Amino acid sequence: MSLNWSCLLGAEKHIRSFRNKSFHIRTLGAAVSILLWIGCNRQAAPPSALAIAFEVTPQPVHVGPVTVDFTLTDAASRSVTGAHLTTEADMTHAGMSPVFATVDERQPGRYESALKLDMAGDWVIQLHGTLSTGEKLERQFELRNVRPN
Question: Which CATH superfamily is domain 51-146 in?
Answer without folding.
Answer: Macroglobulin (MG2) domain (2.60.40.1930)
